[in-house]
Amino acid sequence: MVGSVGMGIDFGLTFLTKEKFKINKYVANSIGFIFAATSNFLLNKFWTFQNNDPDALVQYSKYILIAMTGLVINNLIVYLLINKKKTRFYVAKLIAVGVVVIWNFIANYNFTFL
């Protein structure tokens, strides 16, 4: 459920910034990703992991560090699929999101929400 909400935010903001505001596709991809990561942090903290650690700022810092690593992976996959495999942008983005979701969950499970 959290992943679906995050993906909706990610794709929605990416589409809005790329298609409507004509922002560079990698910047638009990053904007959608960052907003989705923040939303996912809050949903994962309080719903998925039911974590009550009062030091949310430290957790958020860990989460964002993992998310930024995920963003690098995401943009790299998008870049490679578009430029090497001639994949359409949103198909490449969907594949990248699928890979990064796995990275984010495993890393956050083992590092952020202990």
Name the descriptors.
114 residues, mainly alpha, 4 helices, 85% helix, elongated
Beta-strand residue fraction: under 5%
| Rounded mean pLDDT score | 94
Uncertain regions spanning at least 5 consecutive residues: none
State the total count of DSSP E strands: 0
Gross morphology is elongated
Gap from first CA to last CA: 21 Å
Explain what this protein looks like in three dimensions.
The protein is mainly alpha-helical and 114 residues long. It has one domain. It is 85% helix and 0% strand. The protein has four helices and no strands. The two termini are 21 Å apart. The mean pLDDT is 94.
Ordered list of secondary-structure elements with their pairings:
Elements: H1 2-20, H2 25-48, H3 56-85, H4 89-112
In short:
With 114 residues, the chain is mainly alpha-helical. It has one domain. The chain has 4 helices and no strands.
